[in-house]
Amino acid sequence: MRAVVQRVTEGSVTVNGETVGQIEKGLVILLGVREDDTWTEARWLADKIANLRIFEDSDGKLNLSALDVGAETLVVPQFTLYGDASKGRRPSFTKAAHPKVAEPLCDKFAKFLAEAGLPVETGAFGAMMLVKIFNDGPVTIILDRDVD
């Protein structure tokens, strides 16, 4: 699994003009699922993100986690995170999981975040989404949990 985690002041996902997920202070998580990922990777990544210290304490240091500050989360499924553009000009998505595998793992990941104690909103799997991200800092972290 791969996640691009962005600390935000607000974020939202709109599909066909309708807002399907929206948060204020928190994390927008762009989530890619790889062909051989399992719930083990989903659990590890959710725990890592919930406890990742990327919020500032009273001294301005990145010492607080999403759990510490009561952050909200917005999970946006994004198969293009496994696009490989190392050859040619059009990315290959052969490492991205098939939707029948990826969708339940995205749902499981969101459930693990909620079980950790974070409010969770989601995008719409497989839909053409308009994602608004107001990156705070900016703070952007890329996390990988590949089974290689």
Could you explain the architecture of this structure?
This protein is an alpha/beta fold. The protein has a single domain, classed as D-tyrosyl-tRNA(Tyr) deacylase (D-tyrosyl-trna(Tyr) Deacylase, Chain: A). The strands form 2 sheets. Strands 1, 2, 3, 6, 7 and 8 form a 6-stranded mixed sheet that branches. Strands 4-5 form a two-stranded antiparallel ribbon. The longest helix has 18 residues, at 99-116. Helix 1 packs parallel to helix 3. 24% of the residues lie in helices and 38% in strands.
Task: Give the gist of this structure.
The chain contains three helices and eight strands; from the N terminus they run E-E-E-H-E-E-H-E-H-E-E. By secondary structure, it is an alpha/beta fold. It starts with a strand and ends with a strand.
Notable traits:
single chain, 148 residues, alpha/beta, D-tyrosyl-trna(Tyr) Deacylase, Chain: A, 6-stranded mixed sheet, 3 helices, 38% strand
Poorly predicted runs: none
Number of strands: 8
- Head-to-tail CA distance between termini: 11 Å
Radius of gyration: 15 Å
The CATH topology turns out to be D-tyrosyl-trna(Tyr) Deacylase, Chain: A
Number of domains: 1
Shape assignment: globular
Q: Number of helix segments?
A: 3
Instruction: Label the CATH architecture.
Output: 3-Layer(bba) Sandwich
State which percent range the strand residues make up. Answer: 35-45%
What's the order of the H and E elements?
EEEHEEHEHEE
The CATH H-level superfamily is: D-tyrosyl-tRNA(Tyr) deacylase
CATH level-1 class: Alpha Beta
**Average pLDDT level:** 96
Helices and strands: which structural class? alpha/beta
Q: Largest sheet at a glance? A: 6 strands, mixed
How much helix, percentage-wise, in residues? 10-25%
